Amino acid sequence: xxxxxxxxxxxxxxxxxxxxxxxxxxxxxxxxxxxxxxxxxxxxxxxxxxxxxxxxxxxxxxxxxxxxxxxxxxxxxxxxxxxxxxxxxxxxxxxxxxxxxxxxxxxxxxxxxxxxxxxxxxxxxxxxxxxxxxxxxxxxxxxxxxxxxxxxxxxxxxxxxxxxxxxxxxxxxxxxxxxxxxxxxxxxxxxxxxxxxxxxxxxxxxxxxxxxxxxxxxxxxxxxxxxxxxxxxxxxxxxxxxxxxxxxxxxxxxxxxxxxxxxxxxxxxxxxxxxxxxxxxxxxxxxxxxxxxxxxxxxxxxxxxxxxxxxxxxxxxxxxxxxxxxxxxxxxxxxxxxxxxxxxxxxxxxxxxxxxxxxxxxxxxxxxxxxxxxxxxxxxxxxxxxxxxxxxxxxxxxxxxxxxxxxxxxxxxxxxxxxxxxxxxxxxxxxxxxxxxxxxxxxxxxxxxxxxxxxxxxxxxxxxxxxxxxxxxxxxxxxxxxxxxxxxxxxxxxxxxxxxxxxxxxxxxxxxxxxxxxxxxxxxxxxxxxxxxxxxxxxxxxxxxxxxxxxxxxxxxxxxxxxxxxxxxxxxxxxxxxxxxxxxx
Length: 585
Known about the structure:
By secondary structure, the protein is of the alpha/beta class. Helix content is about 50%, strand content about 10%. The chain has helices at about 5-20, 25-35, 40-75, 105-135, 140-170, 175-180, 190-200, 205-215, 225-235, 235-240, 255-290, 295-315, 365-380, 415-435, 450-460, 540-550, and strands at about 35-40, 100, 325-330, 335-340, 350-355, 385-390, 440-445, 470, 490-495, 520. The strands form two sheets. It has an eight-stranded mixed beta sheet, sandwiched between helices. A two-stranded antiparallel sheet has the order 1-2. α1 packs antiparallel against α3, α4 runs antiparallel to α5 (about 140-170) and α13 (about 365-380) crosses α16. The longest helix is centred in the middle third of the chain and has 33 residues, at about 255-290. The relative contact order is 0.07.
């Protein structure tokens, strides 16, 4: 029998090498856990890093086990194998709604990868030599070499990208810029968008119009990130000049504060110009005494009224954060997007999408609902900051002659499909402009036909539109199962008030209220038939309280009130609960 001494010495050298190197990718994993890089390409990178880290520890374990068996075969005592696996909890490798990087943590991640690449390369060579010298397979050593190559390659690539960003932006590193360069947000035609942005930088208003057209199509998930990156490459003087460029504040991806200032300036400018046109139209009407001119004057007067209504709605509300005007348009059906709270810094951003009859003229009710959601969520949010957005960014169906037009009718999905593209693009902008965060969440609330619009947007941006969906009074969301919305079914919530006629339709795809749809149901109470569909935001209602809890992620703290009308009642209490007759009273 061969002397086991040489084998035992080889085992000792390999064990020392394993003790020195088995944790060499742990630092990188911890940095990913602390959100050095969140969203975009981070999940794929984290998964690959986890595989290589496991491969490192497995290869070292295999090498030591092989040498230990050799020692025993040669008559020596069985060495005690050390535990080479370590526990490092990592972030979930799933798409994140908000994304960004911490530049200091990213620098540390890069250094950790480069250090691992350098040291593991030499360690792999030494380990392969120890094994080969005793006639054993050298594959564990070669495996360390491949892991070293992966670490070096990715460390160098990330350093190159980070350096390029830091050379472009000399101040703080914006999330959207990181998303553009580090998260590989590629467009279908990035060169065209980049050329338009270059023209916008020169004050070209037509380029803004063309960018807005691209934006509304929703086909380019990376457009908002490029807009955000472009804005941060401009000098302060250029930004100050461009902020007055008509339409600039409508671009998704710009910081919310920039959009608000640009849109308020635009609103004031348009209002002044409209007043001049209105005065001229009135003078022309008096001079010519032609009744046919009254229609033009009335159209201008209606636009002015809408502007004044927007100004009125933008007044501060006691106990609420200042409203931010993210978009508006007083022509046609109108547009209005207002945020209560800054979505760029909020821990949770909830966006509400309404349906039938919603629009600029009905905006006060939708704004009130968003304020109610902000107030309710804030009651239980603790230190978490909430932003609540009213999104009236599409032509929702109306009760008018458009009911006969498939492009506008509530009976068809075309308006929802077009609106869904615009909503997806808006969500891209929220993600691009958000301050880097690994914990921030986005919630989408779709009401009535707005839930179908939200469903279309979710299909366009699977896993990226929101972390949670809340559908109330929904006639269907355009899919047959909650999992088709790009999130786990437990993150899809459905509320249906008793007697809500729209919630019972199941018109578009499967009925979200059916258990087969796979969504969570939350208690919402009931109301009379004529009011149930709009009752979800009633003050201190169980539905409003539960939506606030869901928005905050407090899903185990929902209110479950006792059932109404436990005793038999007459006169159909569902239709008139105040008139219910209880025979035992």
